């Protein structure tokens, strides 16, 4: 195939009539207008599609179907073809009389062409609109699915009976672990801790954001683990857009600290 | 793989039948129906899975051909694949509740495959079915959803959970696999 590879898949969908991207459809049709290789590939793909259609060849329809068709065509009036009219040799008509029918036919032909183009464009527009509607419908369904999934995740996180657990290989002692998500653009972070060692009553685990510009660590929330070593921080920074080069967790007094006062106990892996 | 081969007997018969229909010969229409009704009905039934609706498509396709036999150009392709594609498109329009157009103006189709008589046509159909059976299940499913259910690649991706690009690739390479077996 010498067709342009960037159109290869769109051509296959176009040959089936299932290309649902209106912009892509317009671009492809414009390209087909100028590219003979792609037109030939489209013809070949249409032939492939026809083979696929032929594979569904089945039984003869019921006999009533044949009778129904034959009755219908019997009832259809056929346009009779007129034999060419003979003119008397040697009898000249006035010039205007000879040309008038020709002019009328020419005008009719021009009118027919214009009408045909109009109908063709309308059909093309209709097909494009159908494709657009199908695409919008598909996108809506996709969004609905995503929304439903997001709601399920939210409900799970807030479920009163939700249990957090970490699955590890068998016989591995439970290790302290903190999972974190940070979005500089939103200025939000979420930390979920498990198996963290218990702390004295007057101590907490405090999270620090280490700015990429080298400025001082910023307090980013704290937690005190429950009886099973689990804890969670959801923290919104005062300003968004702060890039972080790292994070660290230290043990601090229960009142919190302005800057880390003890060695780091947890930091990102790697 | 466009055909430039011999003028086969059946091909001539097709042209003769179309010429008869153009002249208003109802027996030519009956012969043509007897020869190709199973193609049109089979495709329609596969798409619609409803015998009454499939019969309606059969009626409509043949009636349109009776009204407008000029739509088929015997010099540019064969009747069987042409009718099969028209039947599929009409059935999909019906399935997806799209408005039906008044006439048939489908493109001519030159398959390059020997369909010159009933035996050759049966052989070709069996060959295509054989290729389809051997395709990986995901690929066959994507191809069938697109062709026999008229689903767009976006809809297929939404239904199967596969990435859009994967669906598009599967559809195209499925078609190419059909072409390859007749190359």
Structure commentary:
The complex is a heterodimer of chains A (270) and B (183). Chain A is of the alpha+beta class. Among the domains of chain A are: 5-53, no CATH class; 177-266, Immunoglobulin-like (Sandwich), CATH 2.60.40. Chain A is built from 5 helices and 7 strands, in the order αααααβββββββ. Chain A has helices spanning 8-16, 22-32, 36-54, 63-75, 95-158; strands spanning 177-183, 188-194, 203-211, 218-223, 231-236, 244-253, 264-266. Chain A has a 4-stranded antiparallel sheet with strand order 4-3-6-7, with no helix packed on it. Chain A has a 3-stranded antiparallel sheet with strand order 1-2-5, with no helix packed on it. In chain A, strand 3 and strand 4 (218-223) form a beta hairpin. In chain A, helix 1 (8-16) packs across helix 3. The radius of gyration of chain A is 38 Å and the shape is elongated. By secondary structure, chain B is an all-alpha fold. Chain B has 2 domains: 1-113, Rna Polymerase Sigma Factor, Chain: A (Orthogonal Bundle), CATH 1.10.1740.10; 135-183, Arc Repressor Mutant, subunit A (Orthogonal Bundle), CATH 1.10.10.10. Chain B has 8 helices and no strands. Chain B has helices spanning 9-22, 26-48, 51-67, 79-95, 118-134, 137-148, 153-160, 164-181. The longest helix of chain B is centred in the first third of the chain and has 23 residues, at 26-48. Chain B starts with 8 loop residues before the first helix and ends with a helix. The relative contact order of chain B is 0.12. At the A-B interface, helix 1, helix 3, helix 4 and helix 5 of A face helix 2, helix 3, helix 4, helix 5 and helix 6 of B.
């Amino acid at each position: 195939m010498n067709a342009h590879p960037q159109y290869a898949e769109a051509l296959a969908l176009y040959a089936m009539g299932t290309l649902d991207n209106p912009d892509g459809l317009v671009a492809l049709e414009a390209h087909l207008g100028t590219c003979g290789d792609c037109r030939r590939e489209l013809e070949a793909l249409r032939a492939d599609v026809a083979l696929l259609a032929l594979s569904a060849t089945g039984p003869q329809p019921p006999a009533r179907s044949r009778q129904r068709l034959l009755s219908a065509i019997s009832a259809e009036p056929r346009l009779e073809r007129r034999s060419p009219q003979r003119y008397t040799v040697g009898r000249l008509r006035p010039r205007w009389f000879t040309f008038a029918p020709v002019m009328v036919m020419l005008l009719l032909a021009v009118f027919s062409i214009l009408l045909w183009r109009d109908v063709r464009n309308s059909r093309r527009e209709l097909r494009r609109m159908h494709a657009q509607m199908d695409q919008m419908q598909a996108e809506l369904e996709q969004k609905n699915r995503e929304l439903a999934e997001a709601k399920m995740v939210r409900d799970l996180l807030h479920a009163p009976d939700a249990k957090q657990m970490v699955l590890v290989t068998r016989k591995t002692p439970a290790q302290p672990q903190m999972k974190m998500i940070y979005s500089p653009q939103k200025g939000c972070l979420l930390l979920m801790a498990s198996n963290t060692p218990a702390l004295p009553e007057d101590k907490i685990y405090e999270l620090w954001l280490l700015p990429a510009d080298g400025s001082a660590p910023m307090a980013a929330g704290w937690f005190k683990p429950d009886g099973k070593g689990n804890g969670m921080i959801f923290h919104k920074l005062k300003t968004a857009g702060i890039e972080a080069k790292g994070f660290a967790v230290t043990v601090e007094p229960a009142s919190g600290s302005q800057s880390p006062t003890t060695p780091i106990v947890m930091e990102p892996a790697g | 793989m466009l055909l430039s081969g011999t003028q086969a007997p059946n091909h001539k018969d097709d042209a003769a039948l179309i010429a008869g229909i153009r002249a208003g010969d109802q027996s030519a229409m009956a012969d043509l129906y007897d020869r190709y009704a199973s193609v049109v009905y089979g495709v329609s039934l596969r798409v619609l899975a409803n015998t009454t609706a499939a019969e309606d498509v059969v009626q409509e396709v043949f009636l349109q051909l009776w009204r407008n036999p000029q739509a088929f150009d015997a010099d540019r392709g064969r009747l069987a694949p042409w009718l099969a594609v028209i039947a599929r498109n009409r059935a999909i329009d019906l399935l997806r509740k799209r408005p039906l157009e008044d006439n048939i103006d489908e493109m001519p189709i030159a398959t390059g495959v020997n369909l010159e008589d009933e035996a050759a046509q049966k052989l070709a159909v069996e060959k295509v079915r054989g290729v389809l059976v051997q395709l990986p299940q995901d690929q066959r499913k994507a191809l069938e959803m697109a062709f026999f259910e008229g689903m767009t690649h976006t809809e297929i991706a939404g239904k199967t959970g596969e990435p859009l690009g994967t669906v598009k690739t599967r559809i195209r390479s499925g078609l190419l696999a059909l072409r390859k077996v007749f190359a």
